[in-house]
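[Q] Does anyone have a clean structure-token version of this?
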Amino acid sequence: MHSTDSIDPSKNETPRTISKEAINALPLIQWTGPTKVLNTLEEFADAAVQLREASILGFDTETRPSFKKGEYYPTSLLQLASDSCVYLFRLKTAANLQALVPLFESEYIIKTGVAIHDDLKALQKLCPFSPQGFVEITQLTAQLAYTSKGLRALAALLLGGRISKAAQVSNWARRELEPKQIQYAATDAWISRELYLQACKEQSEKL
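[A] Here you go.
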């Protein structure tokens, strides 16, 4: 295992783990393209039609944080990133997800993210579906010997940048999302897609 503090550039070694200090020294990276915040069933249905044309989507969710034992909140936001746009679906009722079920059950459209198991379980509580085509990025990076598993660390290692987590524990169930929440949520979904592409590239280069 190599850390960023022990890399020898002359040997062209790639770091497989990274410290918080090293991450904080990297330049900030974030999604700068179009982002659509969707609230209505009609908007969800229109977006689902567009997303079914994609082959790879970055996937993430956000939930209002709980600070008391036994306190639970349903998923507030679902993020899906294509190559050209990030869609933020505000989940207010179980009916919101119906238009997205065919997308979730498609084995031909890759939906990829970090630590997606619990995200999927929470979404299934809102609306039952049989997940197909979901790919856990950390399974790919583990095959490449990366020991870091968090989204922020993997973004630093594979993409060479730092993503902000400042809005992570904000209230995702609020009536209107703040600009910093929209930026944070869009970036996480976009980063998930980029990490998948980079991991696949590294795997192909090893063959």
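[Q] Thanks! Anything notable?
[A] Strands lie at 35-38, 56-63, 75-81, 86-90, 110-113, 134-136.
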